[in-house]
Each structure stands twice: as structure tokens, then as C-alpha cells.
Design goal:
- This protein is mostly helical.
- Helix content is 71%, strand content 0%.
- It is built from 3 helices and no strands.
- α1 packs antiparallel against α2 and α2 packs across α3.
- It is globular and about 35 Å long.
């Protein structure tokens, strides 16, 4: 479980935009940029996914 109280992540709408870029944009360059942004912010796609799952519970 991520402790979001100690770590500062980007705003949720920005994260959701990166996910959209990665999954739905249809443009390989945009998909790569979204993936790279998520990895830069969270360290891995798995941690980004975990964070989004936590946020969806709130």
C-alpha cells in the first residue's frame, strides 16, 4: 500500500491524462510520453496502478 501522506504525487487529473495518453491516444509517441510520465512520477506502472486503485476507493 502506498503512503500518499509522505510522498507527493501529481494531481489526479494529470495522472488520468497520462493514463489516457498511454491507453487510448492511438499515437505511439503520445503513448510513450504518457507511459514515461507515469514511470517518472511513480517509479513503475505497477505503483501508478496501485495509487489509482487507492484513489478510486475514496
Amino acid at each position: 500500500m502506498l503512503d500518499s501522506a509522505k510522498v507527493q504525487y501529481p494531481p489526479l487529473p494529470l495522472i488520468q491524462t497520462w493514463v489516457w495518453m498511454m491507453i487510448e491516444s492511438g499515437n505511439p509517441q503520445i503513448q510513450d510520453k504518457g507511459r514515461n510520465n507515469l514511470i517518472a512520477a511513480f517509479g513503475s506502472l505497477a505503483k501508478a496502478n496501485e495509487y489509482l486503485a487507492e484513489m478510486s476507493k475514496k
